[in-house]
Design goal:
Blueprint: H1 5-16, E1 19-20, H2 21-34, H3 55-58, H4 60-76, E2 84-88, H5 94-105, E3 111-115, H6 119-128, E4 133-135, E5 147-152, E6 161-166, E7 169-178, E8 181-190, E9 207-210, H7 212-228, E10 230-239, E11 249-252, E12 255-257, E13 267-269, E14 272-273, H8 274-283, E15 287-293, H9 294-300, H10 303-313, H11 318-329, H12 334-337, E16 338-344
Parallel strand pairs: 2-3, 2-5, 3-4, 5-10, 10-14
Antiparallel strand pairs: 1-7, 6-7, 6-9, 7-8, 10-16, 11-12, 11-13, 15-16
The structure holds S-adenosyl-L-homocysteine.
């Protein structure tokens, strides 16, 4: 077994001083995902269960409706061939498998490109979607065809930078080592120039968060939509109006844990800042179709009818299908916390489920 990441961080911090929260979260998640499959239900009394469950793992309906959304906008956009299905952070490959199966039934059979950094998850994805091609980032995905891009719970895993207001002004949030424990601290360097002017005089203790990785992904996706054509769906836990405060959290075995204990052993996430990302997408040439809550979006796409049809074919499973549907769309479950952001190339049509024009 490799040395715990906490020990490596401790040694680095003792030798060279506190590290940024950005570096801490980036390296912790790289270690976390590289070595395991974190997706799955809890197994009581065992550490064999997963740490968290995502929408495609709850029900095939999620991936199928995404596949039908892509096929619909592709068909109305002129049925381009060839066309690329691109998924960022495909997890177990379940969403892709379900989406591609549903899309194929309505005539869409794209080439498949996965952006995935984890060797452990690549192996599982290869079993689910054998003809996929893998990439470390978007830069090597071909440039010669429209893209139909999907990312579910991908952006929330990318590392955030935080600024904290102190009595002495704004500072970057760093991770230090005190009495053998990793702890968040305010860094020494003034960062006031990096903070929006209207927040310069915020109360001490105020925290703001940015995600440079999500911004880079959004810029590249938007530029590719503008240059290659296509459409994109980003689904994640996040807010649809601007917010301040830290949203960093750690989850292990379906429980919230301290993000500064056992880095690399828990899933670190932060809420996705959809308003900033949609502005970036538009500034880089994409058309923003809208950002809506997952529940209404799946309802607009026909999840009720899909659930009824699955239940009719498998009456023994009707109760389980009803529970899964409720987890995906229920107000108290994923239905309102999760948002779906749609983008399209200029000249491509509106997308289903995004309001009066597209709905
Ligand atoms: N989309 C899947 C999995 C979500 S978990 C689902 O909904 O079930 C996050 C996924 O993103 C994992 O596949 C993880 O390995 C991948 N990932 C996280 N950070 C990444 C990075 N920087 N580059 C590429 N993939 C990354």
């Amino acid at each position: 077994m490799s040395e715990p990441l906490a020990k490596i961080f401790e040694r680095l911090i003792v030798a060279t001083g506190p590290i940024s929260l950005l570096q801490y979260m980036g390296e912790a998640n790289a270690r976390y995902y590289a070595s395991r499959d974190p997706l799955g239900a809890a197994v009581s009394g065992s550490d064999k269960g997963g740490d968290f469950v995502t929408a495609p793992e709850i029900s095939q309906m999620f991936g199928e409706l995404i596949g039908l959304w892509l096929a619909d906008i592709w068909a109305r956009g002129g049925r381009a061939e060839p066309v690329l299905y691109v998924e960022l952070g495909p997890g177990r490959g379940t969403l892709a498998r379900d989406a591609l199966r549903a899309a194929k039934r309505v005539g869409l059979a794209p080439q498949v490109h996965f952006v995935e950094s984890s060797p452990a998850l690549r192996a599982i994805q290869a079993a689910a979607v054998p003809d996929a091609q893998w990439h470390h980032d978007l830069s090597t995905v071909p440039l010669n065809a429209p893209i139909l891009l999907v990312a579910n719970e991908f952006l929330d895993a990318l590392p955030v930078r935080q600024m904290v207001k102190t009595e002495a002004g704004w500072r970057e949030r760093m991770v230090a080592c005190e009495a053998g424990r990793l702890v968040p601290v305010a860094g020494p360097r003034p960062m006031d120039a990096a903070v929006p002017a209207d927040l310069r005089d915020a109360d001490p203790g105020t925290i703001i968060e940015t995600c440079p990785g999500a911004a880079a992904v959004m810029q590249e996706t938007a530029r590719r939509l503008a240059g290659q054509g296509g459409a994109a769906l980003f689904v994640d836990y996040g807010h649809d109006t601007p917010r301040i405060g830290s949203t960093l959290q750690a989850v292990r075995a379906h429980r919230k844990v301290d993000p500064f204990v056992a880095p690399g052993e828990a899933d670190l996430t932060a809420h996705v800042d959809f308003p900033t990302l949609s502005q970036m997408a538009e500034a880089n040439g994409a058309r923003w179709l809208g950002t809506v809550a997952q529940g209404p979006w799946l309802r607009a796409l026909g999840i009720e009818a899909r659930a009824a049809s699955l239940s009719a074919h498998a009456p023994d499973h009707a109760a389980a299908i009803a529970i899964a549907k409720e987890r995906l769309i229920g107000e108290a479950e994923m239905g309102s916390l999760f948002k779906v952001m749609g983008l399209a190339a200029p000249g491509w049509p509106d997308g289903a489920g995004f309001g009066p024009n597209g709905g």
